[in-house]
């Protein structure tokens, strides 16, 4: 059995990351999901407000804030994370994310809910408890 799997993380705008990983974790609308090499094929809708974590053999985990999308395990065991928006934790400004969360919580409606979920995913990708 393989010890790694090929993972592609793509947003609507552009590819975000591609490489070998030992595991992929994300929250779907059905619950928390962990994918290891050799996982059976599946398609899961990503839950709003939660990041995706990609473990690499080097021990450097990638934490990615995603907004909307799917996690897809192919028949050949490759994994695709297809997101409307995706942002690596290293590119997230924590102060700006906190401000966006505060502003979104003062508003109502679908746009405010979307902004709230985006900010929550960013803060959670940074490891903050929200």
Rounded to the nearest angstrom, the radius of gyration is 15 Å
Calculate the mean pLDDT score and round it.
94
Distance between the termini: 38 Å
Structural class: alpha+beta
Helical percentage: 10-25%
- Please tell me what the overall shape is: globular
- Give the beta-strand count: 8
The major pleated sheet works out as: 8 strands, mixed
**Strand residue content:** 35-45%
Low-confidence stretches: none
Walk me through what this model shows.
The protein has 130 residues and is an alpha+beta fold. It contains 2 helices and 8 strands; from the N terminus they run ββββββββαα. Strands 1, 2, 3, 4, 5, 6, 7 and 8 form an 8-stranded mixed β-sheet that branches. Helices cover 22% and strands 43% of the residues. A hairpin with a 5-residue loop joins strand 7 (62-73) and strand 8. The longest helix has 16 residues, at 110-125. The N and C termini lie far apart (38 Å). Helix 1 runs antiparallel to helix 2.
How is the secondary structure organized here?
Blueprint lengths: L4 E7 L3 E7 L1 E6 L2 E5 L6 E4 L5 E5 L6 E12 L5 E10 L5 H12 L4 H16 L5
Parallel strand pairs: 1-8
Antiparallel strand pairs: 1-2, 3-4, 3-6, 5-7, 6-7, 7-8
